[in-house]
Specification:
The strands form two sheets. The chain has a 15-stranded mixed beta sheet with strand order 1-2-3-4-5-7-9-10-11-12-13-14-15-16-17. Helix 17 crosses helix 18. It contains 18 helices and 17 strands. Helices cover about 35% and strands about 15% of the residues. About 5% of the residues have low confidence. The protein is an alpha/beta fold.
Length: about 500
């Protein structure tokens, strides 16, 4: 049944029912309100007073100015009455939009995304909204609209992120994204100091101007994930190449996602290695989006003993570089896909011109024995290559790959179902005949699987299923259509 038809029937039932009907249980209606569109929530709010209370919060929960363009015309009295319900605001990029939110009742925001022009009055209004919500905002995205070069540099007053002076409360901000906004180096230290709960920082094109004598850089031990280009990390100050790397601020850094739009990195690979070792000794996870030669050099010359590697593409030289971490590597990922990618209706397209062959890709699961996640959703592999040498990663938990021949939803679904059936059959045999159950995770080749335990067949669906059942800890599988999760 289509969504609109379902909602229509739902509303008819509600309007024709007594107030004792389960649909009028407050907890149930509140739960339903989280899954309807803005248009549907507006219709539901008109059913009765009880539903008005439940669905009004849903209506006001998120304000997206790119979608709700008429919000700037909402009467101030209405905003005053419902402003406390607003939790997320997105798409602010003009003074009228900002002024529409300039009300004391809007004080419980959890997420805010705003594009900031270089105007002092706009900055002042923005500062007011930030201060009003300083103890509730968890996710903040700020982007400059125009980069203005001035002397002295015009820097945004980030102190507005902190609760008002004299307040005993502290900022709860955990995720911060800043782009195209200048700041002083001391101001950056102050910003980090004001956000003790910060764990993820995303910065790009941020000019950090260093004073002739600046204070000791503040070290934020809570930030574990940094997203920034190499130039931002090592050349943040446009006026000085001698300014220290921003890595000095992040001694607890565990994960880094970086990229380089230039043909060469800002400093040598050896210099980068020395700074990562000195300032970020806990770094173990890397996401790299750079040309293949730079990616390979970073993996071999800059980073050591990584446990997680995310790359934009796979080439023979990148695979060779990845294998230098085989003793510690747990996760290998290309094309870090969103959940929407894995749940789309059709079979998604493959990479147009893969740089590495399927046989070369097999070197990763064949040699990385600690591997728990292998995610190569746009690179097609052949079962002949997979079956040529046993995978050493017997502790594999998540697998996202494409197999040649599994090119329709029916074939993918059949292969997944066979894996589930084989898995249950193996467990059943293990309980009934523990001494005779074959060890599917032994070092023997895949052709040694006992035929009495799993049905033998040359179909690609059954070959894939027999391969999957070897991994007893495997709990998530994607072969081109819908992620299958199983209980261990």
């Amino acid at each position: 049944m289509g969504h609109n038809r379902f909602l229509h029937c739902f509303l008819l039932i509600a309007m024709s029912s007594t107030r004792d009907h389960p649909l009028f249980i407050p907890e149930l209606s509140l739960h339903i309100s989280r899954f309807v569109t803005l248009k549907d929530a507006t219709a539901c709010a008109q059913v009765c007073k009880a539903w008005n209370d439940a669905f009004t919060s849903s209506i006001w929960h998120t304000i997206d100015f790119k979608v709700q363009t008429k919000f700037v015309g909402v009467d101030a009295a209405v905003v005053k009455r419902h402003g406390h319900r607003i939790r997320i605001v997105k798409g602010i990029e003009s003074a009228p939009q900002l002024l529409a939110l300039h009300h004391s009742s809007i004080c419980r925001l959890r997420g805010l995304a705003i594009i900031i022009p270089p105007h002092s009055q706009f900055w002042a209004y923005c500062g007011d909204i930030l201060r009003q919500n300083a103890t509730s905002i968890l996710n903040l995205e700020m982007r400059g609209k125009i980069i203005v070069v001035s002397d002295p540099p015009l820097c945004f007053p980030f102190d507005a992120i902190s609760p008002s002076t004299g307040s005993q409360a502290t900022s709860r901000l955990s995720v911060l994204k800043i782009r195209d906004l200048p700041i002083t180096r001391d101001g950056f230290s102050s910003l980090l100091r004001m956000c003790p709960s910060l764990t993820r920082l995303n910065i790009r094109r941020i000019a950090m101007y260093s004073a002739s004598c600046f204070a000791e850089p503040y070290q934020h031990t809570g930030i574990t994930e940094l997203v920034a280009p190499l130039k931002q990390i090592f050349r943040s100050d446009p006026d000085s190449e001698d300014a220290p790397s921003i890595l000095v601020h992040f001694p607890g850094l565990v994960a880094l996602h970086t990229w380089c739009s230039e043909s060469s990195p800002p400093i040598s690979f050896g210099e980068m290695k020395d700074q990562f070792v000195q300032y970020c000794p806990l770094l173990k996870a890397i996401g790299i989006d750079t040309p293949a030669t730079i990616t390979a050099s970073l993996l071999t010359k800059t980073f050591q003993t990584l446990t997680r590697i995310i790359v934009d593409e796979m080439s023979p030289e990148i695979i060779t570089a990845i294998l230098t971490h085989q003793e510690t590597l747990a996760d290998v990922i290309t094309f870090h896909a969103s959940d929407d990618f894995y749940e789309q209706e059709g079979i998604p397209p493959l990479a147009p011109k893969p740089l590495a062959s399927g046989r070369e890709l097999q070197l990763i699961p064949q040699t990385c024995s600690r591997l728990t996640t292998l995610e190569l959703p746009t690179l097609e592999q052949d079962m002949d290559d997979i079956e040529s040498t046993a995978w050493s990663c017997t502790q594999l938990e998540e697998l996202y790959i494409r197999i040649r021949g599994l090119d329709t939803k029916d074939k993918v679904d059949r292969s997944i179902q066979l894996w589930v059936d084989y898995r249950e059959e193996k467990r059943k045999n293990s309980k009934e005949n523990p001494e005779n159950c074959p060890d599917l995770n032994s070092s023997s080749t895949q052709g040694d699987i006992v035929a009495d335990t799993l049905h033998n067949s040359d179909s690609v669906e059954e070959r894939v299923a027999r391969h999957l059942v070897r991994f007893e800890k495997l709990k998530k599988v994607w072969l081109g259509h819908t992620i299958k999760c199983v209980q261990l």
